[in-house]
């Protein structure tokens, strides 16, 4: 048991606050590193108290990229056996890509963990350190909405929620507590490999750490508020009409111009119609707003595989006839919890369905 640690207390509160599904497993993503080891120990304590320990299953993903992986998976199994927690190994099979291997490994990991969870949930050990590094990387690219950081929860393939209860915990605090309890962990050598952007960012932040949890939390709240504003607009049947069969939409712009959430509402509809995995960039969204407000009858604009055409009293959204994407709508693949409101509104209006409700509310304490 991890006892007298502020980080441990934060994690406990976050774990107790998770709304568990009625059925299904509680999967713990266990690499054997300090973060996932701390998560495993804390989750065992909390879910034992909640009467859900028997539903816990630790999964170690062997990506087949390092010779040490099999031994690390064995050590994870030994740890779980000592704690009385079920454990299994899932392997990433098949040929590995020559480029962007980390992104491909992450996608494979999502799929393997979600498959193990089924209708349950997956818990991962992302910490505040991971959060700050992620925001720093996105900041370097000028990402706007991405500055809200890693979401507290993400819905994978419209079915499985991935929850991150350690987002407000510092890695050093968790490691100090593990050491105090006499527990060890596995050090991943890739965490020191400067070929990876995250490692370079981590090293730079040791010298100049200007990001704060408070700023990330504020950006999260702003992103969620924008999502709720856009959702309210999409639910207005006077302003939006949808045709699921032809994957099209019609928008009647208001006389009072673009208000809060307008840009996001236009962006998610264009992405849904065009089957685009990502939302348009900020400047493109600005062009969409200007088009809807000022375009003349018959004028057209193409965005994200979606053709916008100005009609007499509305703007028609339909798929491009050529160069059609088949990659799929992004929120159907990965839906961050702060975007849930707008994604849910579009899903209900456009196809008459709903996403599973997030198991956590807001940003963790």
TrEMBL record:
GO aspect biological process, one term: tRNA modification
GO cellular component, one term: cytoplasm
Pfam families given in the database record: ATP_bind_3
Listed SUPFAM superfamilies: Adenine nucleotide alpha hydrolases-like (SSF52402)
Locations listed in the record: Cytoplasm
Main location per the UniProt record: cytoplasm
EC number: 6.3.4.19
Keyword tRNA processing part of the UniProt annotation: yes
Gene3D superfamilies, A to Z: HUPs
InterPro entries: Rossmann-like_a/b/a_fold (IPR014729), TilS/TtcA_N (IPR011063), tRNA_Ile_lys_synt (IPR012094), tRNA_Ile_lys_synt_N (IPR012795)
Record keyword Nucleotide-binding present: yes
Keywords of the record: ATP-binding, Cytoplasm, Ligase, Nucleotide-binding, tRNA processing
Record-linked CDD domains: TilS_N (cd01992)
Binding site for ATP: 31-36
Function: Ligates lysine onto the cytidine present at position 34 of the AUA codon-specific tRNA(Ile) that contains the anticodon CAU, in an ATP-dependent manner. Cytidine is converted to lysidine, thus changing the amino acid specificity of the tRNA from methionine to isoleucine.
Free-text domain note: The N-terminal region contains the highly conserved SGGXDS motif, predicted to be a P-loop motif involved in ATP binding.
HAMAP family: tRNA_Ile_lys_synt (MF_01161)
Protein name in UniProt: tRNA(Ile)-lysidine synthase
Organism: Oricola thermophila
Organism taxonomic ancestry: Bacteria, Pseudomonadati, Pseudomonadota, Alphaproteobacteria, Hyphomicrobiales
